[in-house]
């Protein structure tokens, strides 16, 4: 097994471990790839391995998803929940298409920006986690449509690597009245159309530059991301219900600070 394949496996594990916790999986994978010298044509690897995390969440929530869609014809609550997730997905879909080139060619290639966003996002997450709020919603299925749209608008901030898609949606849900468990759960469900859309669009945009080696690395990263993500999804909800998000906030601040120091020393 060559070095690039080993690095691809390590980055896939990192993607799966960080995708659903609010620390920015893309930021972590980009920074790790930068320091490891990983070659990623068109930065497609970092986006396409997210399919492993998508498959993990689909597997963990397969029964619940089936129940929601099967009951939708006769259950207004199920229909509203499906509409809420799709409505929350819409802003990211629009911004992702319009700003794709800027995101991939500029933002993805700026380690200082990524590390700074990790720190800033950690501070925000720490502040929100400590806020004394009285949640109005304790189940993701009960989020009203305007609240879902608000979460979707906040999710667009995650187009900046280092912000974190899950972090943005969780913070948005908490500020709009969700408790910690339902905020994480809505983030899980919203990740499905968001990440699948990013996967399909990025695959289309990079279809002409992906060679056999790149596809092989993506396959390795996908498999490792799937395994790691299954473990994280099963663990995360119980953890945040009991302990909140402070651990992830401090992790972001520490990692971002270490990266900035390493970039400064290596100038």
From TrEMBL:
Q: Name one GO biological process term.
A: regulation of cell shape
Any one GO molecular-function label of the UniProt entry: undecaprenyl-diphosphatase activity
Which Pfam families does UniProt cross-reference here? BacA (PF02673)
Answer whether the UniProt record assigns the keyword Cell wall biogenesis/degradation to this protein: yes
Topology in the lipid bilayer: Multi-pass membrane protein
Q: Give a Gene Ontology cellular component term annotated to this protein.
A: plasma membrane
The UniProt catalytic activity note for this protein reads: di-trans,octa-cis-undecaprenyl diphosphate + H2O = di-trans,octa-cis-undecaprenyl phosphate + phosphate + H(+)
* Enzyme Commission number, as recorded: 3.6.1.27
Where does the protein end up? Cell membrane
Query: What sections of the protein cross the membrane?
Result: 48-69, 81-100, 106-128, 149-174, 186-204, 216-237, 249-266
Which keywords belong to this entry? Answer: Antibiotic resistance, Cell membrane, Cell shape, Cell wall biogenesis/degradation, Hydrolase, Membrane, Peptidoglycan synthesis, Transmembrane, Transmembrane helix
Question: What coarse category fits the chief subcellular location reported for this protein?
Answer: membrane
Classification via NCBIfam families: PRK00281.1-2, undec_PP_bacA
Additional detail: Bacitracin is thought to be involved in the inhibition of peptidoglycan synthesis by sequestering undecaprenyl diphosphate, thereby reducing the pool of lipid carrier available.
The protein's job, in short, is: Catalyzes the dephosphorylation of undecaprenyl diphosphate (UPP). Confers resistance to bacitracin.
Q: Which family does it belong to?
A: Belongs to the UppP family.
Name the chain's protein: Undecaprenyl-diphosphatase
Could you tell me which species this protein originates from? Paracoccus halophilus
């Amino acid at each position: 097994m060559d070095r690039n394949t080993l690095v691809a496996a390590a980055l896939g594990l990192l993607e799966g471990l960080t995708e659903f916790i609010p620390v920015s999986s893309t930021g972590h994978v980009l920074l790790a790839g930068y320091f490891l010298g990983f070659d990623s044509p068109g930065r497609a690897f970092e986006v396409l391995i997210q399919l492993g995390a998508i498959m993990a969440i689909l597997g963990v929530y397969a029964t619940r998803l089936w129940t929601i869609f099967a009951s939708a014809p006769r259950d207004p609550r199920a229909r509203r929940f499906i509409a809420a997730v799709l409505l929350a997905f819409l802003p990211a879909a629009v911004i992702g298409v319009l700003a794709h080139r800027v995101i991939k060619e500029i933002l993805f290639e700026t380690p200082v920006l990524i590390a700074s966003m990790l720190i800033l996002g950690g501070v925000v997450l720490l502040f929100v986690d400590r806020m004394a709020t009285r949640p109005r919603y304790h189940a993701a299925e009960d989020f009203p449509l305007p609240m879902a749209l608000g979460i979707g608008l906040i999710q667009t901030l995650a187009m900046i690597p280092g912000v974190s898609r899950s972090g943005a949606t969780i913070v948005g849900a908490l500020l709009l009245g969700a408790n910690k468990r339902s905020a994480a759960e809505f983030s899980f469900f919203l990740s499905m159309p968001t990440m699948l859309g990013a996967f399909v669009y990025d695959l289309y945009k990079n279809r002409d530059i992906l060679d056999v080696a790149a596809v092989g690395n993506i396959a390795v990263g996908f498999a490792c991301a799937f395994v790691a993500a299954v473990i994280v999804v099963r663990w995360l909800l119980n953890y945040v219900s009991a302990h909140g998000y402070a651990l992830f906030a401090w992790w972001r601040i520490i990692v971002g600070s270490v990266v900035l120091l390493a970039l400064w020393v290596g100038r």
